[in-house]
Design brief:
By secondary structure, the protein is an alpha+beta fold. It is 49% helix and 18% strand. Strand 1 and strand 2 form a beta hairpin.
């Protein structure tokens, strides 16, 4: 796919939309090249900590669902790390540790205009669920939500 290309998978509400994210969530960036390197190093440290906790929870016989959730978070973090370290180098636009993360899932479920009577934004165009994300982001989100919804008591024991 080329940058910005879209493939309609299911109607107009589930699209594969090729984009590259140079920063963190929602494309937020900071600090130029040094910020990008710091972000990648932070991701590596965070993934290492998650891996350590996962090994610890397995050893302490935490529930399988808890460990699966931690595994999803670790897998998602690792996927984003691989993109940010190698993707730019593989495609020849950036040195190691300065690549972008590829995002592709796009769900513009509702599109339209705000009613004219709404203060400040009346008449403006909106799209409900505008973020474009990847499988790694989905794994991290599902893992975190699962821990918060089903395993809060176990989180407190860490």
């Amino acid at each position: 796919m080329y940058y910005g290309q879209e493939i309609h998978v299911i109607g107009n509400w589930f699209l594969l939309h090729f984009t590259e994210n140079n920063g963190i969530a929602f494309g937020i960036q900071f600090g130029g090249v040094s910020g990008k390197i710091a972000l990648t190093i932070f991701r590596i440290i965070a993934a290492g900590a998650i891996f350590y906790l996962l090994l610890r929870t397995i050893r302490l016989n935490y529930p399988n669902g808890f460990n699966a959730s931690m595994g999803m978070i670790f897998a998602g973090a690792t996927g984003n790390i691989i993109d940010s370290i190698f993707y730019g180098k593989i495609f020849g636009y950036a040195p190691f540790f300065q690549g972008r993360v590829v995002d592709m899932f796009y769900f513009p479920i509702i599109q339209g205009h705000y009613p004219q009577w709404v203060p400040f934004i009346g008449g403006n165009y909106f799209i409900f669920f505008r973020p474009v994300f990847n499988l790694s982001d989905a794994f991290i989100t599902i893992g975190v939500l699962s821990l918060l919804i089903f395993y809060t008591r176990w989180l407190k024991k860490l």
